[in-house]
Structures are given as structure tokens and as C-alpha cells.
């Protein structure tokens, strides 16, 4: 059986609430919290 391609991470609740608000205000650009976090992490890694 192949290994799972995703890992779980824990974020502070305040950050979680801010991400939820961002998803709700994105007018359809983002549908899930995972999309926001994934894009933010990729942008961070590209910039460093």
C-alpha cells in the first residue's frame, strides 16, 4: 500500500479563525482552508 501523500499539522485557533474568515471573504477564490494554507506555504517557500 502506498504511503499517504499528506500530513496533518496543527495551527493555533486564532489563526484558524482568521483563515476561515479569509475563505468566506474570498468570494469563491478559495473553497477550503487547506487551499489557503497550501498556497501560503508554497509562496513562503518560493520567497525564501
TrEMBL record:
**Protein's name according to its UniProt entry:** Uncharacterized protein
Q: Which organism is it from?
A: marine sediment metagenome
